[in-house]
Amino acid sequence: MKNIEFLVVVIATFVVAVTGGSFYQDFEITWGGGRAKILENGNLLTLSLDKASGSGFRSKNEYLFGKIDMQLKLVPGNSAGTVTAYYLSSLGPTHDEIDFEFLGNMSGDPYTLHTNVFSQGKGNREQQFHLWFDPTKDFHTYSVQWNPASIIFSVDGTPIREFKNLETKGVPFPKNQPMRIYSSLWDAEDWATRGGLVKTDWSQAPFTASYRNFNAQACVWTSSGSSSSCSSSSGQSLDATGQAKLRWVQKNFMVYNYCTDTNRFPQGLPPECSSA
Ligand SMILES: *[C@@H]1O[C@H](CO)[C@@H](O)[C@H](O)[C@H]1NC(C)=O
C-alpha cells in the first residue's frame, strides 16, 4: 500500500504590534493570588512577596523580535534576599531566554542587575552590573531590543550588554522560538545577596515591586494566516555612539562577566567571548 503523505503547512505570521495600552490588555497574573495587582485603570502593576509566597505575571502575547520596554521600580529599603526577575522566555528544554534579574540588597547597598541569554536551552552567559542610580527611588526603563543580528539590553536608553548573532562561529542565537514576557518577585535568600550570607528580613514584608509604561514595538506571533510581514525583524546592532555608551557601562558598572571567568571555563572561554 502506498503511503500518502500530507504535508500540513502551518502558516505562522507576525504582526507588528505597538502595544502598551493597559496591563489588563497585555498581561495576565499567573502566580501569587492577590499579591499581584493591576491598578490605576491598568496603568500600574504591582507584585508583592511575603513569607508565604511571591507573585508573578506574564504577557498574553508571544513575540519574535522587537523592542520591548518596561519601567520598573524595585523593592525599596532592605530588599536583601529578594529577586525581581523580568525576562523573555520560550520555555521548555530547548528554550531561548533573555533575562534581567534584580538581586536585592541591604538598605544603602547596591542592587545587582544580573543578565543572561539562553539559546536552545543553554545559558551560562551571565553578566552582572551595579546601576548608576538607585533603582528603588523611581521608575526606570529596562529594554530588550531583539532582532536577528543582536540582542541589546538597555537601561534608560543606555545599552549595557549586546549579545551578537555569532552563528557563523557556531554559537546558537535565539531566532526561531517566540517568547513571552514574564516577571516575578520571589525569595532567594539562599543565594541572592552576597551569595546567601544576608537573609531576607521578613519583618519588612510585604516587599513590593512596581511596573508601568510597558511598550512593545514587536512582532506578535499568531498562528492564523494573515500575510503581513514584520518590519522590526530587520537586523541592526549598536552604532558607534551606542558602542561608546556600552563600553562606559562595562568599564564602570560591570561586576561580573562570564567572558573573563577563566576559572569557570578551564577548557577555554565560550566562542562568543572573543568578539563580545
Ligand atoms: C550588595 O552589596 C554588597 C556591598 O556593596 C555588594 O558587594 C554586592 O554585590 C551587592 N549585591 C548583592 C546582590 O549582593
From TrEMBL:
Designated name of the protein: Xyloglucan endotransglucosylase/hydrolase
Keywords: Apoplast, Cell wall, Cell wall biogenesis/degradation, Disulfide bond, Glycoprotein, Glycosidase, Hydrolase, Secreted, Signal, Transferase
UniProt modification remark: Contains at least one intrachain disulfide bond essential for its enzymatic activity.
Molecular functions (GO terms): hydrolase activity, hydrolyzing O-glycosyl compounds; xyloglucan:xyloglucosyl transferase activity
Species: Sphenostylis stenocarpa
Glycosylation (residues): 105
Subcellular location: Secreted, Cell wall; Secreted, Extracellular space, Apoplast
EC identifiers of the protein: 2.4.1.207
Active site feature: 97, 101
Gene Ontology cellular-component terms listed: apoplast
Range of residues in the leader sequence: 1-20
Domain GH16: 17-211
Function: Catalyzes xyloglucan endohydrolysis (XEH) and/or endotransglycosylation (XET). Cleaves and religates xyloglucan polymers, an essential constituent of the primary cell wall, and thereby participates in cell wall construction of growing tissues.
Gene Ontology biological-process entries: cell wall biogenesis; cell wall organization; xyloglucan metabolic process
Family: Belongs to the glycosyl hydrolase 16 family.
CDD domains documented for this protein: GH16_XET (cd02176)
Record carries keyword Ribonucleoprotein: no
